[in-house]
Write a structure and sequence with these properties.
Strand content: over 45%
Structural class: mainly beta
Order of helices and strands: EEEEEEEHEEEEEEEEEEE
Shape: globular
Radius of gyration: 25 Å
Distance between the termini: 38 Å
Number of helices: 1
Number of strands: 18
């Protein structure tokens, strides 16, 4: 991949830059009855060149950076009756991008003054994750824990500084541990086969080597959906109707200069309609989000530091049209 950044406007967030990525990988598969293996190895090279630029606000120095990384992954899947067990181990590599290295200004649309660091090194991660699935005709259960240790983890964090009436965020680098997972089920009763009940819980915990919480980590989330799938003949069909509850818990594991976020619960509802007329097939999805008009602020909202809440009750409609024509 070759990417070039040129500044044609008056406001310069990052200087003129060229970025080149080159990668190669090999994957192998092996199947032994109920046991499957997959392994792979990959090499990557990234080169970044930037030009010196003098602006009224910031002076960007010329920069040349080369990053190299070798990664691998391996996993296995074992099936027994109605269950499936997956186990994976992988080593990851990520080179810093130009924003993380060179940002020094107000990012449009974020209301943040962001500062990068040209001294960042490669991110290197080792992750272990498991997945267990149990599935029968009318019920499915899934649990998926993970553990990830990252060397030179790059993250964005708020500071207690304000520049040009804008809150300053800065990129940092440290060793980190991220762990958590997802657990959930999908159930549709045999005697009322049209009814589907789904519920999933997801959670992530992130901290540095000293046990300090890292910033901008999402809240623990519980999503529950009741959906009725309807089947009937006709040119216009009501395909399904659903109601959903999203509950996010308090986020009080916060980084320095970060504020805690209260829990909130949202209710959404919608329906899906399919239709066809000769060679035109269409699908309409419509619904209402935040039916109860709850006032809340999500922990990852970019408007949080300004005291601006997330949207209240809002409506949406989507129309998809498939056109077919015989030649």
């Amino acid at each position: 991949m070759y990417q070039e950044n040129k500044n044609n406007g008056t406001e310069v967030l990052i200087p003129n830059a060229r970025k080149t990525d080159l990668g190669a990988f090999v994957i192998g598969n092996l199947k032994l009855k109920k046991l499957k293996f997959q392994a792979g190895i990959r090499g990557d090279v990234r080169k970044i060149n930037t030009q010196e630029m003098l602006t009224p606000d910031v002076n960007f120095v010329a920069l040349t950076k080369n990053y190299k990384g070798l990664t691998f992954s391996g996993g296995t899947v074992y099936k027994i009756r109605k269950s499936k067990l997956r186990c994976n181990v992988s080593n990851g590599f990520r080179a810093p991008n130009t924003s993380e290295l060179l940002s020094n200004g107000i990012q449009p649309g974020t209301n943040r003054y962001v500062i990068g660091d040209v001294n960042f090194k490669n991110e290197n991660a080792t992750q272990f994750d498991l997945s267990f699935d149990y599935e029968v005709e009318h019920f499915k259960f899934t649990v998926n824990p993970f553990f990830n240790r990252i060397q030179n983890y790059i993250y964005l964090a708020p500071t207690n500084t304000i520049i040009d009436s804008t809150h300053v965020f800065k990129y940092y680098q440290t060793s980190a541990i991220l762990y958590g997972g997802e657990v959930g089920f999908h159930y549709h009763p045999h005697h009322i086969h049209w009814l589907h009940i789904e519920s999933y819980l997801s959670n992530v915990i992130a901290e540095d080597n000293n046990g300090n919480a890292l910033p901008l980590i999402p809240q623990t989330k519980i999503s529950t959906t009741l959906k009725a799938e309807l089947q009937h003949e006709g040119k216009i069909q009501l395909k399904n109707v659903f109601i959903q509850n999203i509950y996010k818990l308090n986020q009080d594991r916060i980084g320095f200069f970060e504020t805690a976020t209260n829990s909130y619960s949202l209710i959404n509802a919608g329906l899906n309609i399919k239709g066809n007329a000769k060679k035109i097939h269409f699908e309409v999805t419509t619904g209402v989000k935040n039916i109860l008009n709850v006032q809340y602020v999500d922990h990852l909202s970019r408007m949080k530091q300004l005291g601006i809440q997330n949207p209240g009750i809002n409506y949406y409609i989507t129309l998809k049209i498939n056109l077919s024509k015989k030649l």
